[in-house]
Amino acid sequence: MNRRLHRFVLAAALVLAPAAAFAQQATAAQVDRLMEVMRARETVDAILPQVELSQQQMVAQLTAGQQLDDAQKAQIDQQIRRTNARIREALSWERLQPLYRDIYTQTFTGEDVDAMIAFYSSEAGQKLLDKMPQLMQNTMAAVQRLVMPMLQEMEQDLREAASKK
């Protein structure tokens, strides 16, 4: 009797095992198609100028109030250009595409990727992609408003701690 129960439980487990356990890993071709419909390359290309602008703003903040001569300004500009070139190389689509492909094939099944392709190919998916830059901008602004008071408080605490020494 015990043996029958054991066989029954084993058979039931095999029959009821989730399909995901047997799902096929996404292929490189599926992921490449997904990246195409998601406009991943265009997104990366659009992000690069924002990264460069952020770097320029950071340098402007670091040098605010300083009297820089022409040679110092030229040196800073040259450093910014070198850094921007490195960033563009590191974040180029040619470097990111294989990385994305590996991450997506490790993370999603072929069925998952096909479903995402269907969604992002749809009108709703394309609308989401169209609105994503604005969504990200609004999200960053909201997070900044949330975090800024905390950062200002931390800065004040650090100043007070430094002045006590």
Task: Describe the protein.
- Helix 2 (28-37) packs across helix 5, helix 2 runs parallel beside helix 6 and helix 6 (110-121) crosses helix 7.
- The chain is elongated.
- The mean pLDDT is 86.
- The termini are far apart.
- The protein is built from 7 helices and no strands.
- It has 165 residues and is mainly α.
- The longest helix is centred in the last third of the chain and has 41 residues, at 123-163.
- The protein has a domain at 26-121.
The shape is elongated
Helix/strand structural class: mainly alpha
Instruction: Output the number of helix runs.
Output: 7
Average predicted local confidence, pLDDT: 86
| Secondary-structure element order, N to C | HHHHHHH
Task: Give a summary of the structure in a few sentences.
With 165 residues, the protein is mostly helical. The chain has helices at residues 2-16, 28-37, 40-63, 70-90, 93-107, 110-121, 123-163. α3 runs antiparallel to α4 and α6 (110-121) crosses α7 (123-163).
Topology:
Layout: H1 2-16, H2 28-37, H3 40-63, H4 70-90, H5 93-107, H6 110-121, H7 123-163
Helix pairs in contact: 2-5, 2-6, 3-4, 6-7
From the structure above, extract its key features.
165 residues
